[in-house]
Amino acid sequence: MKTYTLLFLSFFTYLLGFGESGAQQLGNSLTGVVVNEEGEPLPFTNVALKDNATQQLITGVVTDLEGYFMLINGYTGEAFLEISSIGYTPFLLSGLRLDGATKKDLGFINMAAGLESLTEVTVSGMRAQIVFDADKTVVNVEGSPLAEGNTALDVIGRSPGVFVDSDGNINLNGRSGVVVLIDDRPTYMSAQDLANFLRAMPADNVKSIEVINNPSSKYDAEGAAGVINLRLKKNDLSGINGSVHMGHRYNGIHAPNAGASLNVKQGKWTTNANLNYSEWAQFNDLEILRRFQLEEGSSDFDQQARLKLVRKNLFFQGGTTYLLKENHRLGANLQLSRQDGAEDGLSNTAITTPGSLFPTNLRAINDSRSDNTRLFANLHYVGELDTVGTKITSDVDHTFMDAGSLSLLSNRYWTEANQVGNQDRILTGNEMAYSIFTTKVDFTRPLKNSRSVELGLKGSWVKSDNDLQISKSIEEGPLEPDANSNRFVYDENVLAAYGNYHTKLGPKMKLQGGLRLEYSDITGHSVTLDQRNRQQYADLFPSVSLQQTINDNYQVAYNLNRRITRPNYRLLNPFVFYIDPLTVEEGNPNLTPQYATNLEMNHTIKGQYQISLGYARTENAFGQIMIQDDATRRTSIQIQNLDVTQNLNLRFVVPMEVAPWYTMNHMLQLSQNTFQSQLGSELLDESQFTMTFRTQHNMTFGKGWKAEMVGMYMSKNRFGQMVLNPVAWVDAGVSKSFKGDKWNLSVNGSDLLRSQRFTGNIRFDQINTDVAQYNNIQSVRIGLRWKFSQGQNFKVSQRSGSTEEQNRLD
């Protein structure tokens, strides 16, 4: 704890660098919230106050992530307000009479899409790639040279505080239990299905990534560690515009990709569509050394394996919005994805036993084929009921997924004396389908004196059917049904209601408090075993956020919330899935939800530097547990509830402008993770200090050239039983736009030093296991994109500027 305190105080003292003279904010105060035609906040919008006679700039700011702005100045006289954002008609508010102490709340300011009256917008410097707000971090993906040709999972893994392991599981600040949203809507997928889905989604479709450590009560309480929200690209420009792209990736396996997007805005209709085809392929190299302690001595399993994975992905996304009447809109969205996968694996295991001169060798060949089809449909309504910001929104969603896989695991044991040996086979067929129906309504009502209230209701109904059929043959015999076959039906109903209240506690303090009630009714039914397991529970999830402005250079935010992660339907299924003859993955019908209490304090200094101190306590935390039977030398892997896990983290964010064309962003995070749980007859009581360092460099050289580099380092880390050794990697990319920015050519590479190799070990109870895995992430991609537009007379000129100007760029 001394280390945290010393680092915090020294860094805080270094950055503060301002006196008490700024503590008093005198003069005019103009506030407001800039929104689009659908009532959604418009962040990074320029707000300029100008002299009415000379039209010279008095002062200016850029809106925050919620579209909010505050202009403080000592001007006396007549002025007007000019608000501009790329893709929207400039907004002018004249007739402002300022006396040097004017206090005025302008309420919600609606920006109309379209650029008919705007022929040129000057953008000073570069858009910030990462923006830190009081309650979330926004990573701007659009225009990144590293995004072209990559997947949504790739760009999520490069976000601050996010770690994606070798299996595609997403962790936030060293914790599992992260929920991924797409445009504020849950995906309702298992971790494996979600990873495959995000690998199928091109990063080119993503506009930004919101990493929300402390969501308000408006969000579902699901996601003990926090929320990651993907904002997909939308285009509000009038007329017809779009793009066509193609690319290629090579990492030892060739993988092409191609796609197109089209946006049409005509009259009362706004329509967009994206169609993408991609192939994702890689080799996974795995080494596992397991030691078993027998009465007569030790036995070692030394396994070397290589797996080739190939997935062909087709992804379609479309949406349309119709203006019923002024400020009332009806819209629909559709997503369709199809994945076809092939996995071919070969592993050799040398098994040594006491008293044997030669090891027994196990050669396992795995041939697997899979397919997955997902359909998502949404119908929504947005109505702005008055001019002060009263708004009602409603959504009806339906998601359907159908997936199947068939794998044949052929195993042959042989020794030096018997080179041929006998062959066993395990045939596994897995058919799964689920249907999800959700409906919700949200209501926002601004009140007097900068207060507002949010209310909402939501219901979700989930039903899944999973049929696992296993057949086995022994010593060249025929395939016969295995007792581990199982059909599992899962039903989940969740009803929720929430309320949020926003107010100001004086001119320098804002308070948001909310409470969410969720009732869950979950039933798991093993049809094969004729067993039912029903869980019913109601929980309250409070959230509080207090934002305090000490002075112009220093703001503090305090956040507190309680959250839940429910067991996924796949985890509750009492299945037994063979990874190899001596390793199985098991479901756990006794798994219960995990609950987390999260506290965070954020310091923002000079509008750019950030220090965050956070603490989280999770009860019944999910943990992947390895169970080893020395007698049979069989290993089982299962998700279990750990009694308590605790996470203490301290994060420093330091953006730097080396030159107008070169910016950097550094993040240092220090974490202490503690795990405490009774596992069988042994007590797990371990702590691990982890340091994570992330550095991002963005360069704009002129004449259309851009470059980006991201480097990551993570020291030793722990996830339950397993300890991961330090790992580091570097990704980089460069792009060139030409022909008036209509064409863009990009080249980028991942894991340039071939260092993203995961190694670790388990030393717990009688378990003694070492693991090393490399997924051949090192790769190079090349992409070409052509953008077209019709019906617009709009151009953007670029010029570099000072730090102050960059703070006001759109």
Automatic annotation (TrEMBL):
Residues 149-227 form the TonB-dependent receptor plug domain. Residues 385-786 form the Outer membrane protein beta-barrel domain. Keywords: Cell outer membrane, Membrane, Receptor. The keyword Transit peptide does not apply. InterPro entries: Beta-barrel_TonB_sf, CarboxyPept-like_regulatory, OMP_b-brl_3, Plug_dom, Plug_dom_sf. One of its GO terms (cellular component) is cell outer membrane. It is found in: Cell outer membrane. It holds the Pfam family Plug. Transmembrane segments: none annotated. This is TonB-dependent receptor.
